[in-house]
Amino acid sequence: MKMKKTALDDDAYLYQKREPKTEKQKWAEMDSGQRRQYFLDYYLIKVIVLAAFVFVTGLFLWNFIQKSNEETVLSVALIDESLNKEDLEALTQELAEYLGADGEKQKVMIDDSIYTQDGGLQKLEVYLYNKQVDVVIANEDTYRKLAGYGYFQDMDEVLGEASAEYRDIYVEAAGYKESEGVSFEDHESGQGEKLPYGIDISASSKFHNIKQYISTPVLSVALGAPNRDNAVKFLNYLMEEEKNELVSQKND
Prior knowledge:
Distance between the termini: 137 Å
Structural class: alpha/beta
Shape: elongated
Strand content: 15-25%
Radius of gyration: 34 Å
Strand order of the largest sheet: 2-1-3-6-5-4
Number of helices: 11
Largest sheet: 6 strands, mixed
C-alpha cells in the first residue's frame, strides 16, 4: 500500500543536509557577466595582494643579490663633518678611479653622517666592531678620545717603510690600557701607551677645500680595517700635492 506524502515529508526534505557546491560547479553555472563580477568580488583583492607580495619579495631578493656582489674597497668615516653633496660625489668618484675600482661592483663609501652630539660614537663603535670602517677622520680632540678607546692602529706599523714620510705630522695619543673588552664605559680608556695613532692632514689642500667644520683634521686607520692598503693609498692621495711640493723643495 502506497503511503500518502505528507507536509512532514516536505519539511524533512527541506532540512536535509546539502553538500556545498565547489568553486568549479559555481563557475560552470555562471554566464560570462556573472563570472566577471564573481572574480571582482572574491579574487581581485587576493590577486593584487599576492602580486604585491611577489613583487616586494623579488625586489628584496634582487637587492640582496646585488649587495652581496658588491665590494667596498675603502670605507671612510668623517666625524662631525658634513660635505657638500657635489663635493662628496666628486671625492667618491675620484677615489674610486684612484684605487682602480669600477664604482659599481667595487665601491668607495664615505659616511659624513656621524655626529658626536647625536649618539654618533655609538654608531661608529658598531661599524668598528663589525670591521666596516678603514679610515676615521676627526677633529683632534675627538681623535684622542677614540684613540683612548683602542680603536686605531699605530701608524708606524701601518705605514712600514713609508712612515718616514709622515713622522713630522704624526699626532700621538694615549691608547687603551688593555687589548680586550673595549667599550665606551671602561675607565681604562686613554691610560695606555702614547703612540702615533693619527696623522695631521691639515696641510692637505684636497681635504681643506671640501671640509666645513673640522678645524684640525686627524686621519687614523681603524683597528681591524679590512682594506688597510687602500687606507694608506687614501692618505697618499690626500697628501699627494704636499708630498710633491716637499720633494721639490728638497731637490732645490
